[in-house]
Design a protein that fits this description.
This protein has 144 residues and is of the alpha/beta class. The chain contains five helices and six strands, in the order βαβαββαααββ. Helix 1 crosses helix 4.
């Protein structure tokens, strides 16, 4: 019996939607990473991008546990000397709540060309409206 290896031409992509309201950031990100990678499908192949597209709405309503609201720090460097900028999670939620979810998911995906292709399938939106209605996304069940 041979091991099945999925080909790139055989990949069937679906659109999934997640409401991030009152969901814990890390648990949400891990489930999204599994779906983007395609590990929830029987045809999973590690070197093929076989995952689905994921739409996340209500990104500003994601929940952080413990003291992470003020203790978790996000960093960015401008690549100029002394250009390190940092924000606590509370400020990041006000400025770019989409970036909080994107960074959490990116940390759970493989690094390199394959991971960069997978993260492009993640669409995160601040409110409940999104422009992907024509793709008829199906809900992705995520535990609270």
């Amino acid at each position: 019996m041979k091991t099945y290896s999925q080909k790139t031409a055989e990949v069937e992509r679906n659109w999934r939607i997640v409401d991030a309201q009152d969901k814990v950031l890390g648990r949400l990100a891990s489930q999204i990473a599994v779906t983007l990678r395609g590990k929830d499908k029987a045809t999973f192949t590690p070197h093929i991008d076989g995952g689905d597209f994921v739409i996340v709405v209500n990104a500003e309503k994601v929940h952080l546990t413990g003291a992470k609201e003020d203790g978790k720090i996000y960093y960015q460097h401008t690549r100029f000397r002394g250009g390190l900028k940092s924000w606590p999670a509370r400020r990041m939620r006000e400025i770019h709540p989409e970036e909080m979810i994107r960074r959490a998911v990116w940390g759970m995906l493989p690094k390199g060309p394959l991971g960069r292709e997978m993260i492009k399938k993640l669409k995160v939106y601040k409110g409940s409206a999104h422009p992907h209605v024509a793709q008829q996304p199906k809900p992705l069940a995520i535990a609270k």
